[in-house]
Amino acid sequence: MFTRRDFLVRAGALAALGAAGAAGLSACATDTSTGTAGEDGATPVRGGTLTLGTTGEPDSWDLHVSVSTLSAVALRPVYDSLVHRLPDGSFEPWLAREWTVSPDGLRYTFELRDDVTFSDGTPFDAQAVAANFAHVVAPTTGSRNAKTLLGPFTGTEVTGPHTVVVVLSKAYSPLLGGLSSPYLGFHSPAALAAPVAIAAGGKGVISTGPFVFDAHTPGQEAVFRRREGYTWAPPSAAASQGAWLDGYTYRVLADDSARIGALTSGQLDVADSVPAGRVKELQGGSGLTLVARDTIGAPFTYSLNVTRAPFDDRNVRLAFQSSVDVETLVQGLFQGQYGRGWSAVTSSTPGYDAAVEGTWGYDADKAASLLDAAGFTGRDADGYRTRDGARLSVELAYAAEYTTSEQATVHTALQDSVRRTGFELVLRPLDTPSIVAVLSSGSYHLGAAGPTGQDASLLRTLFHSTLLPATGGANVSRVADAEIDGWLDSALSTTDTTEQAKLYGQVQQKVIGEALILPTYVGRRTYGTAQRVHGFDLDSQNLPTMDRAWVGG
Predict the structure, then answer these.
(1) Host domain of residue 86
(2) Which residues contact 541 (CB under 8 A, 6 or more apart)?
(3) Which residue has the higher pLDDT, 27 or 48?
(4) 227 in a domain, yes or no?
C-alpha cells in the first residue's frame, strides 16, 4: 500500500500515514549526433546509458493503481500526459493540442494530436483516452491516487476520432493538474486487456513516451530504452526529437549508505534521496552535482485533533504551537539543508500564501499565559502542567513502519520542546492496521504527515469537514469549520487563479491562526549526479527529466 520512504497524498489514510548489487556504467555509444549547448556549456551527445539508484521498488508498475512517488520517478519518461504543467503553475499542450472548458466547469473538451502512437504501434486517439479513464475508475482496478486526481469524474464522451470530452458532476478546478500527472498517463488499449502484466512491469508496460520499459528484475532493477521516432514532447521540453540517452536503468538500493557509496565510487550515475546529513560532505569537492527541489505539498506537519481534549481548547492549541522554536529545531537537526515551514503548504507549492510568514512562532511566555488561561496552573513532580490534579498529557500516534529516521528525530525534538512549557508528549508508534484504525476513530491527540500534492488544492484534502480519514480524506485535525469549507468549495469551483489564490490564502491563514497544525521542516528530494551526467533536472512536479539528460565527458 505504501513505500517506505515515499508516498503521494490521496483521499484516505494515505496522507495521514505518510507522515513514508551495484550498477556498472555503460560507455557512450558511437552515435555522435548533437544538439544545442546545455546550461553547463556542453553540447548534448546522443547515446550511452544512465543508471539511477533509488530507495525502493514501486508498489505497482501500473500508475493507475500506484500511490508511490517511486512509480512516477521511474515511469514519467514512459508516460506522456494530456497537458504539461510549467513551473509557474500554468499548462501547455502535450498529447492534447488544445482544450476548452464549459462555462459551468463540468465539461473539458480536448482536441488530441493525430500523430501520436503507443510503442506497440497502436494509434493514440479519443477511444484510447476513454478506455484509460474507464480503467482508472473501474472498481476492479483498485485505483486510489489516480482516481482521486480525476475528481468528480462521471465519464468521457468521444465526439470525434481525436476529440474527447471529460465530464464532471461538479466543477473541479484541480483537474488539469491531475491530468498533467504521470498517474493519469495512458496505457495502450492492448495492454489494458492484461492489467496484471502492466502491474508486474517490463514489456507489459506500453505507452506513448520517449522511453520504453524493456526488462525487469523484481526487487533489483528495471531497464528502459529510448523509443525511436518520438516527436511529440511538450513545447517547453528539449525532447521534441526523442531522448538523448539510449536508455536508463532504475536500480533499487534501499540503504542510504550503500546508495551514496555506489554513487561516490562510480557505480551509479545518479543517486536518489541523498540524506540531509550527507549533503555538505558531497558538496565538498566530491566532483558530484546535487540537484534538489523543496517538496511540493505540505511541510512535515503535526495536526492537532480539535475534537479531543485538551486540543478542543484553542488556548491549549496555541500554547502548543508557541512552545516550539521551529527555526532552531530545523536548523539544529538538518544543518541548514531544510527550511522551516510556515504554512499548511510549502512555499514552492502553487497557491502558497506568503502572508502567513512571521505570524506565529516560539513564545514561551505566551504559551505559559495561554495555559494559565486554560486552567493548567499547577505543576506535578515531573514539572508537567496540571489542571484539577490531572497532567497535561497528549499523545502522538504515528505509523512506525513508514516513519523515516529524520521524522523520528523530529518527534523526539518536539517532545523535548513542549516539555519545557509543561506538555507531556507521549510517542505512540503503531503498525499500519492500528494507525488506520486510530486515525479513523479519532482516538489520538496528534498525527504527523508530510503529504505531497499538485498545488494548494491539497488543502481541501487536509481540512474539509467531509474529508476525515474514515471517509476518504486526510483531515487529521478533524476540523469542521463552515468558513473553511466555504473557501475550499469556492476554490474548487472557480478557474480564476487569482481568486483561487485568495481563497487558499484565507484557508492557510485560518488554520495557522486557529493552531490546527504545527508545520516543521520543508523536505527536499535531493539527487546526486556524477560528473559525466548533463542535463539532469527536476520538472515542475519534482520528477527527473530523463528525456533531457545525456552522458559524456
Answers:
(1) 60-198
(2) 72, 76, 85, 180, 181, 296, 454
(3) 48
(4) yes
